[in-house]
Structures are given as C-alpha cells and as structure tokens.
Design brief:
Helix content: 40-55%
Shape: globular
Radius of gyration: 22 Å
Number of domains: 2
Structural class: alpha+beta
Largest sheet: 3 strands, antiparallel
Distance between the termini: 32 Å
Order of helices and strands: EEEEEEHHHHHEEEHHHHHHHHH
Length: about 350
C-alpha cells in the first residue's frame, strides 16, 4: 500500500520515515537500485530488497541530483538528470531507425509501430490516461460506493495481485451503476465493472476470473496499444522519443472510447491464458472463470445486455476448450474466496447509491 514518507539522504544510505505511522526504514545505498525515472515525465522509482522489494516513488527529479552529490562513490548507479538530453537524442535516432524499418517493411505498418511505442510509454503516462478514462466513463455520480461491499471486491483483487509481487500499476476496481454486462481495463491499472456484469456472477470465483482477465490486459498493455494504433505517425514518434505532451493529450482524448475497444482475438486469448495462470498461481478455482464465460456464450443472442460483453470480449468454443484443458492440467485449488460470505449481498452494492 502506498504511504507518504519523508526521506533523508546520507552519505551511506537513505532514511525513510512514514509520515502517518512514524515507522523508519534505513536503506544502504549499496542495496538500492533505480528502476524508473530516466525520461521526462517519469517519477523516480528506487527499489530495495529481494524478489518482493520495497519501492520509493519521488516526483521531483532534483532528488537524484541531491543523492548523487551526497554519495559520489555510488553516484554512477543513479541517473544523472543532466543526461536526459543525451537520452532524447538517442531516442530520436532510435525512432528514425525504427521508422526506417517500418518503411522497409510496409506491411508491418502502424499496428507494429504502435506495439513498439506502447512498450516505451512510461507507467506514469498510462496512469494519467487511465485516470482520465475512469473520470469520463465512470463519473463519481454513477459509481457504486459502499465501503463494506467494495472491501469484498478489494479482497479478491488483493489475492490475485499477490501473484504479481512487483506490479507497476495502482490497480483499482470501480463498479458503475449501469445494467450493461461488461467490464474493461484502462491503461494504468484501472478496471471498470458494470453492475450488469456483477449481477451475472454467482460467486466470488466468477468475478475473480473476470478480474484476472482484465488485469492481464493491463499487464500486457493492450489498451495502451489500442490507443496508439489510432494515433498518427507524429504521435507515435513522440511516444518513441519521450515527448510527454503530445502522447498524453492524444491518449486522454482517446481514453473516452475505451469502453468500446475491441481487443484482437490474440490479445483475448493471451488474457485468457495468463488470467487462468494467475488464478492457478493464487490457488483460486478456475472453474468460476470457465462458468462465467460459458454463461455469456450460452446467452449469446438471447439478451441484448449480453451483447456488449461479447462484442468486446468475443467468446469462442476453441478458447473455452483451451481454457478447460489448461484448468484440468493445472494444480488443484486450495483457496476459497470470501468463505462464509453470502455472495448475493455483493449485488446490493449499487442499491443505496444516491441519485
């Protein structure tokens, strides 16, 4: 969980004090590594620890200058903000080379260039685009807000995210009071679930299957890629060389249409496959995921509300067969989500919404 902190820089380490609890951590500089903050628009991210590491996020790039000055012996391990011009020049050369390859391989075209650009978009940009999308598509007046029932959904999300120890995104789930049977993920880790879909679930494991699928779209950067595929060549070049303003402005504008995006079948299969693997890694029964998808497929063509989900998450018998085979071959589930909780209660989440 993110917490505000005060950081003191010493010659041999960092002293980090949590402002809310007063708890203090000391990080020897020899064990600190920088993983983000090399380009304009990125927060500085420092990590400390092993496989499950602690992270420190700092918005002011001047922190790096102060850190390098206080500890010159380890300065090479941390980015020098003055070198950003060099990185920009290198980015321009890389963009030119990329465009040359794209021109030579014309059939690769804009979609391929968008894939390259998506892999280079900083997480901070994705979060900004995602926040704009949620504000547009799930305005505060339409959100279902009930702390106790929202906590149940957060518990499910937390179990899934234990399998992603170094998640770069601030994953959050928002439920919207609308009968549409749909859910989608924005760049930056924001997942929107419509009341109609929540009403169609029979247990926590079914919702976990939907959330695992959407989390994989975020981790695969599918929405970011979809936005960039609508962009002009100029915007793609800006993404490749690190120009914040153009990409962010285009992304925020395009984010308004995220709810209607159609991911490719390959992207859907990948989200299925890795979503199922996430459930198995979390020891959650994947039968819930399969049951929900089968329900959607069975109701196809019989109820208009189902059409939206199927149009943005096209089901197919071969996908379900592949998921069933993977579920059968995987380990047996050991975790029962929200044991003892009456799942029908979660469907009252939107009942008390004002307006």
């Amino acid at each position: 969980m993110r917490q505000p902190a005060r950081v003191a820089i010493g010659g041999s380490g960092l002293e980090i004090s949590l402002t809310e609890t007063g708890r203090t951590f000391r990080w020897p500089l020899a064990g600190v590594r920088q993983t983000q903050g090399f380009y304009e628009g990125e927060q500085v991210r420092l990590e400390h620890g092993g496989e499950i590491s602690d992270a420190l996020l700092i918005a002011d790039v001047a922190f790096l200058t102060a850190l390098r000055a206080a500890a010159p012996d380890v300065a090479p391990a941390f980015h020098d903000p003055r070198r950003r011009r060099f990185f920009a020049a290198a980015g321009v050369l890389a963009a030119i080379a990329t465009l040359a390859v794209a021109a030579a391989l014309y059939a690769w075209g804009i979609p391929g260039l968008a894939d390259v650009a998506a892999s280079r978009v900083p997480v901070a940009w994705e979060v900004a685009i995602g926040e704009a999308a949620v504000a547009e598509l799930a305005p505060a007046g339409k959100r279902c807000q009930d702390p106790e029932r929202e906590r149940r959904i957060d518990e499910i999300t937390a179990v899934l995210l234990r399998t992603v120890p170094q998640a770069r995104y601030p994953f959050r789930v928002t439920v919207v009071d609308h009968p549409m049977v749909n859910a989608f993920a924005t760049p930056g880790g924001f997942i929107v679930v419509f009341r109609g879909l929540l009403d169609r679930t029979d247990n926590a494991e079914e919702l976990a299957g939907v959330l695992a699928h959407e989390i994989q779209h975020v981790l695969h950067r599918d929405a970011t890629r979809a936005i960039l595929r609508q962009a002009s060549t100029a915007v793609l070049i800006a993404a490749l060389v690190g120009d914040v303003s153009g990409v962010l402005a285009f992304g925020v504008q395009s984010a308004r249409t995220l709810g209607d995006f159609h991911h490719s079948r390959d992207a859907e299969r990948a989200a299925d496959r890795d979503g199922l693997a996430m459930l198995q890694a979390a020891s959650i029964d994947p039968a819930g995921m399969l049951a929900f998808f089968r329900t959607m497929e069975r109701l196809e063509g019989t109820q208009p509300a189902i059409a939206q989900y199927l149009s943005t998450h096209p089901a197919s018998s071969d996908r379900l067969q592949a998921l069933s085979a993977a579920a059968t071959a995987g380990p047996k589930p050991t975790v029962k989500l929200l044991e003892g909780y009456d799942w029908s209660d979660i469907k009252k989440l939107c009942a008390g919404r004002a307006g």
